[in-house]
User: Fold this.
Amino acid sequence: MAENTQYKIAVPETYEKDGEQKTSWTTVGRAFGNDSGSITLDLPQHVAVSGRVVLFPKDAADPEEKA
Assistant:
């Protein structure tokens, strides 16, 4: 992993539209790579997350509807 790489932390929510499964993404925080190879997650106060979270590169386009 490249050091100092930045990410968006997003939570997926699946739903059905026109008989098709879709995914909506909500950004809940940010993350960044450290020189040691670890990744630090930064979640704002009062953000409760359970289930699945996904890291997307910060400069990437918004996630596609389907994960």
Summary: The chain has a mean pLDDT of 86. The beta strands are 6-17, 20-33, 39-42, 54-57. Residues 6-51 form one domain.
